[in-house]
Specification:
The chain is mainly α and about 150 residues long. The protein contains 6 helices and 2 strands, in the order ααααββαα. It has one domain: Arc Repressor Mutant, subunit A (Orthogonal Bundle). The chain is about 70% helix and about 5% strand. Strands 1-2 form a two-stranded antiparallel sheet.
Length: about 150
């Protein structure tokens, strides 16, 4: 294996291991009953501040429409999102975060921020800032292969 291939394998191995560890730690820090996928959707809706279709959310999270429908169904049952028909196209639905969903997202954020801040503090803010552009470009390059 040449040096570039070995480097690529090492990079992917580190990212996959970090992803697994981060998901586990975040999952443990989230409020009881909230899954990482729930938090991710609530956080996205809170940050964008606009309604989204289930298809738009599925595309944003790189999951199937069925997987997103399942997540949205659980969030709606919990009262965290409102799902309504699209007034312009009755075949589509629109999803918005509810006040209870915003509170749940804020509580989840409050529970995970200490853990992720501790990691950043241990690594050093300057090192994290220098890594972000590379990780962002890596994500964009991987995402550009979507069809």
């Amino acid at each position: 294996m040449d040096e570039n291939n070995s480097l690529a394998v090492s990079l992917f191995s580190e990212i996959l291991m970090a992803d697994q560890l981060a998901r586990t730690r975040l999952g443990q820090a989230l409020p009881k009953g909230m899954e990482l996928s729930h938090f991710s959707v609530l956080n996205h809706l809170a940050r964008t501040g606009t309604e989204r279709t289930p298809a738009q959310l599925a595309k944003a999270f790189h999951v199937t429409r069925g997987a997103m429908t399942n997540t949205l169904s659980k969030l709606e049952t919990a009262g965290y999102v409102h799902i309504r028909p699209d007034w312009d196209d009755a075949r589509r639905k629109m999803v918005a975060i509810s006040p209870a969903g915003r509170q749940a997202r804020d509580a989840a954020l409050a529970s995970i921020v200490p853990m992720i801040s501790e990691v950043v503090n241990e690594l050093g803010a300057d090192r994290v800032k220098s890594a972000l552009p590379i990780l962002r470009e890596f994500r964009i390059k991987l995402g550009s292969n979507d069809t």
